[in-house]
Amino acid sequence: MSHDLVIIGIGNMYRGDDAVGLMVADELERSGIRTIKCRGDATELMETWEGYTKAIIIDACPYMEEVGKIYRIDINEDEDILINAVRTSSHNFGLSEAIELSKLLKSLPDEVIIYAIEGEKFNNGDDISNKVKAAVLRACEQIKNEITRGE
Amino acid sequence: MTGDKNTRKIKVDYLARVEGEGALTLQTEGDKIVDLQFRIFEPPRFFEAFLQGRRYSEAPDITARICGICPAAYQMSSVHAIEDALGVKIGGPIRELRRLLYCGEWIESHTLHVYMLHAPDFLGCADAIEMSKKYPGVLERGLKLKKIGNHIGKILGGREIHPINVKIGGFYKAPTKEELMELKEPFEWGIKACLETIDWVKDFHFPEFEQDYEFVALRHEKEYPYNEGRIVSNKKLDISVQEYEDNFYEEHVERSNALHSRKKGGTSYFVGPLARFNLNFDKLSPLVQEEARKLKLDNGCTNPFKSILIRSLEMLHAYEEALRIINNYEEPEKPAVNYTIKAGVGYGCTEAPRGILYHRYNISADGLIEEAKIVPPTSQNQLTIENDLRSFVPRHLHLGDDELQWQCEQAIRNYDPCISCSTHFIKFKREHS
Fold first, then answer.
1. Fewer CB atoms inside 10 A, N or C side of chain A?
2. SS3 A7
C-alpha cells in the first residue's frame, strides 16, 4: 500500500547533538504532525519508508562550517552533498547505505529530502549545544513550509 | 610502505561493518607484532552512573537505550537482576513471552550480521550494497527474515526498536493469542529460509584458524539458553549468576575507554554463539542438530571464522523456538506478577545475541538504585579478539596490505562486536611507517 509522506527523525538522545533529529520530530509532533523516530540503522530505515512516495529525514551531521546550520538535501539533486554530509554522520552504517540499498531494491520513495543539522558534541552524556537547540524550531518551520508546499 | 622496510603499521581508525565505534592499531617488525591495540568506546559505564538514584522500575527502559541492536537483552538482564533482588519468580506464559522476545532479538541481530555485515567478507564484497548487486535476491531473503524478527519486538515490546512494554514482574500488556497466531505463517516461511541460509553459507571459504579458547555461556538443564541458567565453560567452570564477580573481573586499559574483562587468573574467555553452541549442543532442536551434523559441527566448532555458520544455525533454532511458543501460547491471567519492594542486591545474566550480558543492582528499601554494574558481551570478548589477532597476523604477513587489513577486520567481525552499543560512527584508515 502506498502512502504519501513519512517524516523520520534520526538520533540518539544520550549523545549530545546527535539528539537533534529526535528533538525536531518531537517538536513536529507537538504541532500535530506525525513522525517516526529511528536510531538510524539501515534496515530499520528501509522498513520505515517502504511504501511511501516521499520521505523527510532529520539527522545530525558533524561540524563543518557553523554549529546549528541546517542543510536541506534533495537526494535526487544533491548526491555529492549527501555523501559528504551524511556519510560522516554518527550513523555510518545507516542512512546513506539505506538509500543505496533501497534504490537497488526499488523500495526508495520517489522523493527523499534530508534536513541535516550541524552539531559539535556527540559524546555519551553530552548536553545538546545551545546553537543546535536553537536550530530545532527553525528546522521545524522549514519542514512545515515544505509540507504545506507539497499539499 | 615507508621508513624501515621491516616495519609495517596498520592503523584502522574506524572499523567497517561492526556495530559501533572501534579502532585497530597493529605494528609489526619482521614477523613479530610490536604493538596491537583493539580499541572500543563503550557506553555501559556511563549508564551505570546514570542509573544511580533512579527508581528500580526505570532500569529496563533506561538500559534498553544502551543498544539499538539488542535492547531486549538489556531489558531482560535488568528485570532478572531486579527480580532476583526482590525475590520475584516468573513462570508460565510470561516466561514464555520473555523467551519469545529474545527469539525476535536473536533473529534480528543474527540476520543483520550474517547477511549485511559478515557475508560480504566471504564473497569478496566491500559491503552489502556490492553483495546485493552481485547476488540479487539474497539480501531480500535476509531482510525479510529480519523483518519477521522485528514483528516480535513490535508485538511484545510495544514497538520495534527500544521496547517499552517490559516491566519488573512481566509485561505492561500481554499479546492476545490472535496477535501471536498472525506470526505463525511468517515463521513457518522463516524456518525454510533459515535452511536456505545455512545452505548458502556452508560453501563459504573459512580460513584455517583454531585456538584453545575457554568458551563461557549459560547452560540450562532443559533448554537452549536465553534468559536463565548457570554460567559454565569448557574448562570446568560451573557457577551461579551470583558468583559472576567472584570469577571474572574488569580492568581499565589505558589506551581504551572500555573495560577489558578477564577470568580470575588473568585469562581471556570467549562468549557468544560459538560458546553457546559448544556448551549447549544437546539442547538445540533436532533439526538444528541434524543440520550441524551435515556441516560436521556436531563435535563443536573452535574456528571463529565459522561463526557465520553457528549464527545461521542459531537463527534456525530461534525461528523454531518462536513457532513453538506461538503455537502453544495461552494468554496469562495477568500480564505481570505482584511483588513487594525491599532492599537487596540482585544479579541477572542472559544470553544477548553476542553472548552473556551481566547486570547487578543494589537497591535501597525505598526502591532506588544505589549501584549498578553492567558487563556487556563485547567487553568480555575484547581480550580474545586481540589474542586472535596476535595469533592470526604473524601467520598472514605474506599478504598484501589490503588483504591483511581485510582479514584482520574479518577476524574482528567474527565476534560481531557491538562496540559502542549506541552509535554507528566508523571509518577505516591504514598507515605505513
1. N
2. strand
Cell numbers describing residue B175: 499479546
Nearest beta carbon to residue B17 from set A90, A93, A122: A93
Using a CB–CB cutoff of 8 Å, tell me whether A83 touches chain B. Answer: no
CB B150 within 8 A of CB B104: yes
DSSP tag of A51: T
With CA atoms as reference, report the closest residue to B57 among B170, B159, B174. B170
Q: In this structure, what C-alpha cell is assigned to residue B322?
A: 518462536
Among B116, B132, B423, the residue with its CB nearest the CB of A18 is B423
Q: Which residue has the cell 543539522?
A: A117
Q: Cα B237 vs. chain centroid, distance in angstroms?
A: 21
**How close B129 comes to chain A (CA, Å)?**
6
Distance CA B156, CA B94 (A): 11
Q: What is the CA radius of gyration of chain B?
A: 21
Cα A141–Cα A146–Cα A147 angle in degrees, nearest 5: 100
A107: three-class secondary structure by DSSP? coil
C-alpha A3/C-alpha B175 separation (Å) is 28
B 102-161 residues inside an 8 A Cβ radius of A: 112, 116, 127-129, 132-133, 139-140, 143, 146-147, 150, 160-161
**ipTM metric:** 0.79
Number of neighbouring beta carbons within 10 Å of residue B33:
16
Q: Is residue B40 a contact partner of residue B20, using CB atoms and an 8 Å limit?
A: yes
d(CA B103, CA B89): 21
Each of the 433 residues of chain B gets a pLDDT tens digit; together they read 333 556 766 665 555 544 455 677 778 887 788 888 777 655 556 788 889 999 999 999 888 877 777 888 999 999 999 999 999 999 999 999 999 999 999 999 999 999 988 999 999 988 888 999 999 899 999 999 999 998 998 898 776 556 779 999 999 999 999 999 999 999 999 999 999 999 999 999 999 999 999 999 999 999 999 999 999 999 999 999 999 999 999 887 766 666 789 999 999 999 999 999 999 999 999 999 999 999 999 999 999 999 999 999 999 999 999 999 999 999 999 999 999 999 999 999 999 999 999 999 999 999 999 999 999 998 899 899 989 999 998 888 888 878 888 888 888 889 887 754 433 222 222 233 3
Evaluate whether B58 touches B342 at the Cβ level (below 8 Å).
no
B244: its cell numbers: 559472576
This prediction's pTM? 0.88
Strands A52-61 and A111-118: parallel
